[in-house]
Amino acid sequence: MKKNILILIASFAAYVAIAQETQWQGKFEQLGTDLPTPNEYRTGSGAPGRAYWQQKADYDMEIVLDDKKQSLSGKETITYFNNAPDALSYLWVQLDQNVREKETNTLKTQSTALRDSLPAKAAAQALGVTDYDGGFKIKSVTDATGKALPYVINKTMMRIDLEKPLKTGENVQFGIEWSFNINDRMELGGRGGMEYFPKDDNYLYTIAQFYPRMAVYDDYEGWQNKQFLGRGEFALSFGDFKVKITVPADHIVASTGTLQNPKDVLTKTQQERLATARKTFDKPVIIATQEEAIEREKSKSDQLKTWVYHAEQVRDFAFASSRKFIWDAQAVKLGTTTPMAMSYYPKEGNPLWEEESTKAVKNTLEVYSKYTIDYPYPKAISVHAASIGMEYPMICFNFGRPNEDGTYSNRTKYRMIGVIIHEVGHNFFPMIINSDERQWTWMDEGLNTYIQYRTEKENYENFPSRRGPAPLIVPYMKMQRDQIRPIMTNSEQIMQFGWNAYAKPAAALNILRETVMGPELFDKAFKEYARRWAFKHPKPADFFRTMEDASAVDLDWFWKGWFYTVDHVDVGIEEVKWFKMRSEELSIENKGKKTKKGDLSASSENNEMMDFSNGPEPFSLVDTDPRYYGEFKNRVDDKAIMAKFENKNFYQVKFENKGGLVTPVIVEFTFKDGSTQVEKIPAEIWRLNEKEVTKVFAFDKEVTNIVFDPNKETADTNEDDNVFPRKKGDSKFDQFKKKSGK
Question: Is CATH 2.60.40 the classification given to domain 53-110+120-237?
Fold first, then answer.
């Protein structure tokens, strides 16, 4: 027997060596050179380095909205501060409206095809068959003295050549004058534009990407001047804005920033209501009523008013304008700040918007502040516009419109609340924690979708969340590999965009919190990432490194599997062996029985029923051979150890990793008396063999059922092989019900 044990140990060592040689795929190797080398700007801990720097761009703008021609014109003075250690001889400016010019690369690079029957609107939009004359019309680019500066426009980017290099610590002022025709979103789509209401012959304008904006210059790649094709959003520098917006006198303007001249643009009654709202925390106060909005719809004033807004330390600016707007607001008490939650909406949004919008804004600010930093801006606005969800600092545009008679379904209600939470949440990602959306969509959409789910879960009972929980990502993870791409894919090359950039990162972070790290460690690390990178420009490595640095959890295997591959979780229980230590009673009980390896194997070809019906296999413990003690003079008590093993049930379970994505192993055991016990094993169990692992579990009671991932925490894509016992051909659910009575 001693000789057999020694042979068994030697065989196991050989097996491990072979497994390391043949199965090893590096899933537990550190990311290492996959991440940028730490330096004085970005540290190995994931924090900004001692020499971290970023540029600043201030804007002074005058905007005129022409409600008769549906056009916008403006002029701006940009003050650009060079904090980089490099001298700059030219600047790059984003011209995002040029995505709509006739020669746009967006249409040229889209794959198109015709079929037997096409909706006219869809065909015109896809093929660019339109009379719309889009894109910026640049009137002038001048220096601070009014002298023309040389510039060249390359599609959605404009290079401005400076008279002399801009050195470190210096700033330069220059002016741009421009105009463009506002797009009809019903016909052409778009993140901003106008919506026409034929019944009362009025427009609702959601104006964004409306001014030439400075591109980012940073330590990571210099100028971020990747062309805008429509999907990858924006990389922008922080700055201060002073904006004058001239609109028809009967319009209400919602905007980024703080209103500087309320006495000029609001009635005395509206000013009083706004003052009341600043002190009201329990419900919204109506500042501009529906009755007042209906009267304004009829007037169509020919007079103009100028609304003046200032905003500090924001990366962008947007506004909405309409005579149709109803406006409500309330105060929100956070830990260190008291911002206003506001909503602007036409009567077509009521009663749903009056009931739910500002409440959703409030809930969002509270939950996001809890998990990141206290919301630092003076307000957050939700604007209702048809068929859109889009975000900017302090303001966002959201869908969710009731039927014409004011009725609405739960689906409409929850979709509206969901989009408001999501778009208001974007104030945090990427408006404050300022990632580069042009390169890495997941850094704003994925992180934001994760906290959106937390907001839904913590504020609404039985909210029908679309993204976040692990089971919801399973359909995507089961797709063919040529239909999907890793999360770490540039925005313009992503396939299955919503799944990849929103749903998968959100599910990954939820799994990371609930199953891998635990809520306490995850929440502290996530909050540290937000604190470190608020009002700065984080990159993926900064997030990955901070989450590890602040938690002491090695997560390289997790980032590699979830973010760099298209592997999926598919773990099966392939074999179960039941053992009991050999005793005289067990020997008599099994006398005459043929026990062989694989009697309980879930993969055995000879067994119709894979269960525990053959009883336990006996094994023996023997006195420890002196050779195992080496130079030690003392000895263990072999008999005491044997006594501890007596009457125990041992279950040797083999798990096979079929999907390639390593995962914690969560196993639920159901016992004869109906009680259950869950064992959670860290993902590192796969570190020596990424294909299959075997684990022995010891219990006082006999097991009747074993289930992998009983609460669907890991996004396992095939549940049929997650249960034991099972009969060939039975689904996991049917067999589990039959055996456990659950």
Answer: yes
